[in-house]
Protein 1
Amino acid sequence: MRNSRRSLLHPATMFLWLTVCVVFLSWICDIYGMEVTLPQTGEQLRVQSLLSPEGLRWWLRNAVKNFTGFSPLGMVVVAMFGLGVAQHSGFIDACIRLGIGERRGKSKVVICVIALGLLSNVIGDGGYILLLPIAAMLFQWVGLHPVAGIVTAYVSVACGYSANVILSTVDPLLAHITQDAALARTGYQGSAASLSNYFFMSASTLVVGAVIYVVTRRFLFPALGKYEGRSMEPYRPLSRKERRAFWVAIAVAALYVGLTLWLTFSPYGILRGAGGGLMHSPFIAGILFILSLGIGLTGLAYGFSSGRYRSDVDVIEGLTRPMRLLAVYFVIIFFASQMFACFEYSHLDRCLAILGANMISTFQGSPLVALVLLILVTATVNLIMVSATAKWTFMSFIFIPMFAQMGVDPDITQCAFRIGDSATNAITPFMFYMPLVLVYMRQYDKQATYATLLRHTWRYSLAILAAWTLFFVAWYALGIPMGI
């Protein structure tokens, strides 16, 4: 067993071979002249070979930029600064000891992690970076395998990306695309608002959360077994000094949150956009930095109040501690960033996705069957093109007019798309945060690879896709409005 596990590819090697596959496939598709028509503009899009002279020149000019400009890289580093201080100062440990106590309530911890994962899309992609390491600590604290915490949190964030009881950052973006496509292709005069799927997606949080909980308890825990790594320190209650430091940190956090809300929603409102909204505002654009700064300040307050920190040297130690973990991440992300950049340059992602979407664009059947097909096609396309807005930018121009002819409103079409767009997020190697998830897992399992993660997540994706689709069918058949 040990030898077979060692034969699995390291994540960095896996992304290197994926890059090679993308290069080879782009060359083959270019030879056969593979091209598609962009539905939103009518322009022709042809696959570009990465083995052509221009392709090779592009890669040499951009190899470094592909790495340094990879958007998750900066976000991960910035978020790790705040999380590192909070962990190094002892604040996160104090929260766990005070909140959970003597390592009881395993079910409570699992439910809490799932709920936080489902709600995390309010802060965009922050859940992938911040929640996963905390979930591992929580699971280990109550005697569960820490990798189970990472997998549970990852699936909750990834597969539940559209389900939320609170308006998320992606809702207004998708609604804006839907409105443009409906107006351009069908002359639709209604309003595809940000809350057009709110009722269904709010109810979906219970469905998705229940599926994740059942699969975690029934399959994930038995598969991982007991954790044989470093054991946690014996439980000890917070001392009087630690309690005082904890409440000082909470007070600092409350002041920071209050100031942030005032700067965002007050008449002063410097964190709102130029038009007074939040859609393209500094608040949304900088939400991860705002969170990291707040977590870091809270950790600082706890560290100095508890006596753990006495000078700036201690603070710098907290800031640098996560960088040791990120050393492996930097190596993996170099190869992953080249793969993502090559995939985008070649146009393979959009060409394959448009071909897949066009396969059912001429379907002649009942609207409900067509909507189920849309969910399945989107779930398949999502395996190679993860970005919801990138997919919906062209898929909306294909499917909104198609379903309009069947009498289906754009908000229902958008809702079906969002189910397929979320369900398979956890199993695709093209997920931008896959390298980070693998690095987190390798903290507790040095042999963890993409195959390890896939072995645990495929059940979640299939179960969520099936349950969520059935829930959508029932909701549609009953004629319940999707949202406001």
Note: Residues 212 and 460 are 6 Å apart (CA to CA).
Protein 2
Amino acid sequence: MGKVAVTLKIMPTGVDVDMDALEGRVRGTLGDTLHQLEVQPVAFGLKAIVATVVVDDAAGTSGGFEDSLRGLSDVESVETTDVSLV
């Protein structure tokens, strides 16, 4: 069984969202699977959180991560942007 890296782009509901607090909630939700997390500028003051998690390839899809992250306050959308073998 191998491992896959899944990159997720988490968009906040707006520019007024406390990104430090949101980053903390994302870290708590992803837990031990979190490999890398960074805040990236998008446009006009809006920033996105880009998180990479590493999971067993038997885990299937990233749908579970997306659903969990969408349930966080101040999250507008979650998108899987990349899946690759580790």
Note: Residues 3-85 form a domain with the Alpha-Beta Plaits fold (CATH 3.30.70.60).
